[in-house]
Amino acid sequence: IKYGSDWIKLLVTGAFMSAGDHPEDVHFSPEELQMAVAEARRHGVPVMAHAHATEGIKQAIRAGVRSIEHGTFLDDEAVALLVEHGTWLVPTLYIGDYYIEKGSPTGAQDKMIELSKRYRDQHYAWVGKAIRAGVKIAAGSDFGGYEPSLNAGEIEALHEAGMTPMQAIQAATRVGAELLGWEGRIGTIVPGKLADLVAVPGDPLADLSSLRRVRFVMVGGQVVRRD
What is the mean pLDDT of each run of 10 residues along the chain (227 residues)? Predict the structure, then answer.
């Protein structure tokens, strides 16, 4: 916070990519999570929780995090807690599919590919249950600095999990802005907000894959690409 971070991310559980742990491990006690969130909140900074493990998800929600990143091993109680506390879920579904398809050129993703194959159907099913329960779900890719068009894969994945095309697009726009607390600046096309826009050929509501074929980009009202 001292050096300007506007979010705190806690690795509440193990990960799919990290060596030496397992996504079903829980890294913090409930007391540690509560204290971390309380301290961040004291400075007006929200907390996101990297959480795969079921118990880690529940502990993080109860501690007051703003979002759960991944949420692979949800259960009915965890879904109910997400709804009760108004916590966002960012399921990052597509990154597993991407590496299953593309492979691991350096070997660094071997662990992730193995686990993604094992748990893919389960993860999609639980995200579908969360969608039906009314959980607030935002699109996040977990790709970092990769090709931006890969974000479209997450929108398609959310549709596969059970969202309508419009819901999936909103997860990447309006709902994502609300999660960030930036709904007054971005996320919808409204006078006074930043004009960050893309245009694609065709109708994304009829074919979400058209979002991979961006032909026009405007950033802050300035055209930076026009094919």
Answer: 95 92 95 97 97 98 98 98 98 95 88 95 98 97 79 96 98 97 95 95 95 94 95
SS3 197: strand
Asked if 199 contacts 189 with a C-beta cutoff of 8 angstroms, the reply is: no
Q: In 10 A of CB 190, how many CB atoms?
A: 9
Quote the tokens at residue 18: 């990290």
Q: Which two three-digit tokens encode residue 66?
A: 């703003």
Residue 54's CB is within 10 A of a number of other CB atoms, namely 19
CB neighbours of 66 closer than 8 A, spacing ≥ 6? 46, 47, 48, 87, 88, 179
- What is the 3-class SS of 112-148, one letter each residue? HHHHHHHHHHHHHHHHHHHHHHCCCECCCCCCCCCCH
Q: Look at residues 96, 79, 92, 11 and name the one whose alpha carbon lies nearest to residue 50.
A: 11
